[in-house]
Design a protein that fits this description.
Blueprint (H helix, E strand, L loop, with lengths): L2 E7 L7 H15 L4 E7 L1 H4 L6 H17 L8 E4 L5 H10 L4 H5 L2 H12 L10 H15 L5 E4 L4 H18 L7 E4 L2 H4 L22 H9 L17 H9 L2 H12 L4 H28 L1 H30 L3
Parallel strand pairs: 1-2, 2-3, 4-5
Helix pairs in contact: 3-13, 4-7, 7-8, 10-13, 11-13
The structure holds tryptophan.
Length: 330
């Protein structure tokens, strides 16, 4: 039996190269492996908590959908859909809430961090916290359990959510008999190390990310923003600087070692940035072309997602019906 792999990306911003190397590229590689049966989706309801307007939702949801397609997701191979197109997820979310201890949610990192921040600032502990944030991990468990998922590829920051989904699956199975597969996380290593423009971890929230699909000029500008030290051309540079780390993931071994040797021999930062732009742009350009195509043909994207949702609901309904039966409403 093929292993079922499922993951979602929240449309809360433009996809950046950290998302690409940490999540999208490895997920697409998995989908090309015959041992796996892959379900990838746009977690639009999980984004509601962060987004400020309907316009942002539209903008980012298409950006993420077109990014997946541009990076090579084949909708014939992958069940590719929007979370909101599978309403069974929301009923399951409610059912699962009833086997989820409140204390488990109190310990979820994102919620706990908010409470601690309020405490530090002398605010009411609940200040600025809505139920969407509090229930976030249950909705995520519903996403996963509804499809009998075996493996969930995620970044390290999501590990606790998978542990919560496992706990919820186990509590449910204990109360109602074996219904759900208990999923395993699959943590991509690269996400832990990919650095951003300022040398910290690349993240939307640090505003240090390099957007994956922009025009060449903007890409060049982002690269020019990468923080370096003040060493002059001719002075040896640190071979583990941010430029070298980024160069490594875009270039082949030979090109990378030449770059590092040149840095050690005194390559100027300006020239180094030019070379980084060249290797990055060479990698991104063919995908950017596809991205631009899909962004200009949103009706095609809608159609792909609609067909994906039909396939997803077919699989989901099996677990959904079984759940309704096991809880005694059918
Ligand atoms: N919470 C995930 C993130 O922020 C997105 C997500 C929602 C997800 N549902 C999921 C990931 C189910 C994996 C499986 O990145």
């Amino acid at each position: 039996m093929k292993k079922r792999v499922l993951t979602g990306i929240k449309p809360t911003g433009y996809a950046h190269i950290g998302n690409y190397f940490g999540a999208i590229k490895p997920a697409i590689e998995m989908s090309n492996n015959n041992e796996y049966d892959c379900f990838y989706f746009i977690a639009d309801n999980h984004a509601l908590n962060t987004l400020k307007s309907a316009e942002e939702m539209k903008e980012y949801a298409y950006n993420i959908a077109c990014t997946w397609l541009a990076c090579g997701l084949d909708p014939e191979k992958v069940v590719f859909y929007r979370q909101t197109d599978v309403p069974e997820v929301f009923h399951l979310n409610w059912i699962l809430s009833n086997v989820t201890p409140k204390g488990l949610m109190n310990r979820a990192h994102a919620y706990k961090a908010k409470v601690e921040e309020n405490q530090k600032n002398g605010e009411d502990l609940d200040s600025g916290i809505n139920m969407g944030l509090y229930n976030y991990p249950i909705l995520m468990a519903a996403d996963i359990l509804l499809f009998g998922t075996d493996i969930v590829p995620v970044g390290l920051d999501q590990k606790q959510h998978i542990e919560i989904a496992r706990d919820i699956a186990e509590s449910f199975n204990k109360k109602y008999g074996k219904t759900f597969v208990v999923p395993e996380p699959y943590i991509e290593k690269e996400t832990c190390t990919l650095v951003g423009l300022d040398g910290r971890k690349m993240s939307k929230s640090y505003n240090n990310a390099i957007q994956l699909f922009t025009d060449e000029k903007t890409l060049q500008k982002s690269i020019n923003r990468i923080v370096t030290d003040s060493r002059l051309p001719g002075e040896p540079k640190d071979p583990e600087c941010t430029l070298a780390i980024l160069f490594k993931i875009f270039a082949d071994e030979e090109r990378y070692s030449k770059f590092v040797n040149d840095l050690k021999a005194g390559l100027g930062w300006g020239e180094a940035k030019k070379q980084l732009f060249e290797v990055m742009n060479a990698h991104i350009a063919p995908m950017r072309e596809k991205f631009d195509y899909f962004m200009a043909h949103k009706d095609e994207v809608d159609e792909i997602l609609k067909l994906g949702a039909e396939k997803a609901r077919k699989v989901a309904s099996e677990y959904y019906e079984k759940t309704l039966k096991n809880i005694g409403v059918k």
